[in-house]
Amino acid sequence: MVMRLVVDRYASRLDVMRYLLNITLDDTHILLDHAEKVQRQLRTLLAPYTVLAAVPSDTSVTCDTTNPWAAPVFRECVKSHTSSLSAHGTRLTPSEHLLLEAVQETTREICRVTTRMWASGLTAGIDPFYPADQRPEADRIRPLMDEWKKDMTELMSWLDWSVWVKCRPACGVEEMCYLPTWPIGFFPPPYDLPEPEGHPSPSQARENALLPDPNEGEWKRPQPKCIRRLAPYGF
After folding, report:
1. Residues 132, 19: Cα–Cα separation, whole Å
2. Which of 56, 67, 62, 16 is nearest to 39 (CA)?
3. Is the model's pTM score more than 0.85?
4. pLDDT in tens for each of the 235 residues of the chain?
5. Which residues have C-beta within 8 Å of that of residue 207, sequence separation ≥ 6?
């Protein structure tokens, strides 16, 4: 139940930020606009945990990778979903302890990455709630956006939630999103084929050569795709 709550709270917001960060932009004004949109998403995400005193000092002119002033926000974010469960202490079974640790580790990583991103954006002067004296330069925003993109990609790859497995772009009315599942849509790998007596025939050798590598592509990590739900059907 708690893990479902964590997924429901963060999944769509992280997906929106990944979308914004994956757009290639050259125009300075559009780049700054996208940075402000990402910052707004981060601020909304962390709003329930924001401590009013957690603001950078006036002397902070560069992005500190540690951002100690943002530590209270990080702590509130980490304990928001599990503090009541942790209070039960020894009354939890070993399995419940294991589940609790999994949820805590997940929320800790989400909060660590998002708090650092939010703090670096605020320090860079792109948060409308804490406007800078002057608009930040593009040569400062672009490296920040690249860093955000790297952090978000690594976080979502680490989480690897099934809710993000979807067809992009969305399927049409006559289609459905299908995740290839063995054996439908797959060919048998060469080592599952019966060994012919003696040397393989030329046709058998050609067939083996056309079979996909089991360590690559859809064999390794199937990807969703749109298939027709009305005739004519096909994979």
Report:
1. 26
2. 16
3. no
4. 788 999 999 999 999 999 999 987 777 778 888 899 999 999 999 999 987 766 776 544 444 446 788 999 999 999 888 887 776 666 888 888 898 899 999 999 999 999 999 999 988 888 877 766 666 777 788 899 999 999 999 999 999 999 999 999 999 999 999 988 766 655 555 545 555 555 555 555 555 555 556 566 666 778 899 999 999 887 6
5. none
Which two structure tokens, joined as six digits, stand for 56? 């950078």
